[in-house]
Amino acid sequence: MTDFQAEKRLVLEYYDALDRADGTELADVLQRYTSESYTWRAFHPFHMQTDATEVARLFWQPFRQSVTSLQRRMDVFIAGNNHMDDGNSVWVSSMGHLMGLFDIEWLGIQPTGKMVMLRYAEFHKVEDGKIADTAFYFDIPHLMMQAGYDPFGSQTAAHMVQPGPAPHDALLIQDADPSEGQRTMDAMNAMIGDLGTWQSGLPIEEELARTWHDDMIWWGPAGIGATYTIERYAKQHAGPFRAAFSERSGTGHIARIAEGNYCGFFGWPNFTAKPTGGFMGLPPSDTKCEFRVIDMYRREGDKLKENWIFIDLLHFYNQLGIDILANLKGPST
């Protein structure tokens, strides 16, 4: 399948209705656009839900009450056949920020009355004119840091409100050339294949250079941060991460799509690993932890150039017995 216009229109209409709805209308919008067997996956503390009304009650209504004058600022919008089921399902993905005024407490995070941005990435499976599955991953610690909190302590890379792709060409409302999407899928699959070769003996920098440009940008989640160039990425994230974890499982993706120069995937979880070397300042642990992740990528030529990463670090900490949201004591500034 190479025509994704019906699926894209459905998701864009859903976003328009959702963003315009007031608190009392949110559940109706979700019910109107989703299937009866709807599944919604999100980060801690929301996790998996299978009822559209509950999704509205647990997430959308409280969030919209707290963050007012909401704007959706999309940086990426793509669709594609799912590589993980031989192309039998179609998924639409978007990424960007939900921006508004932080006026009322949310999840125990105290409001600032100022502009705030919740960075998000989302995958929607479209079947029979309805959204059947959603993975909606959002960086709550990133919002906390904008509000003056310090949920994790020092991080190895940079904290910032992250921009979209450098060429500003990722809103693919019209379908892209399928051959370009295949090139992008091939580049992503090659990179994923290399992830499974930690024991290959290659230095990290040489391994990364196989599938990444030297001036790659890794837009990581709050708590880890963003880093630039292979050399700094290896130093500020890939090296510390590999040293921290052992017994990493294989990759378990639910959806993997590509269109034009852009692609992405998500899992539930993507993989499991034990933080036997300690991570993010935490002591070593023999607990097998699962990682819920969305990755979005931009290809340039035959290699990857930019990567936006969403990792449920609140869930990771929770598995180690640390509930960051339950232990909030107020902002640090």
In terms of structural class, how would the helical and strand content be classed? alpha+beta
Total number of distinct structural domains: 2
Overall mean pLDDT score?
Answer: 94
- Morphology: globular
Order of helices and strands: HHEEHEEEEHHHEEHEEEEEEH
Can you summarize the main beta sheet? 6 strands, mixed
| CATH topology heading of the largest domain | Nuclear Transport Factor 2, Chain: A
What is the level 1 CATH name of the largest domain?
A: Alpha Beta
Low confidence ranges:
none
How many β-strands, per DSSP? Answer: 14
State the separation between the terminal residues, measured CA to CA.
52 Å
CATH architecture of the largest domain: Roll
What is the rounded Rg?
Answer: 19 Å
Number of helices: 8
Topology:
Layout: H1 5-20, H2 26-33, E1 34-42, E2 48-49, H3 52-66, E3 67-81, E4 90-102, E5 115-127, E6 130-138, H4 140-146, H5 178-195, H6 204-209, E7 212-219, E8 226-228, H7 230-244, E9 253-259, E10 262-267, E11 271-273, E12 289-291, E13 293-300, E14 303-311, H8 313-319
Parallel strand pairs: 1-6, 7-14
Antiparallel strand pairs: 1-2, 3-4, 4-5, 5-6, 7-8, 9-10, 10-13, 11-12, 13-14
Helix pairs in contact: 1-2, 2-3
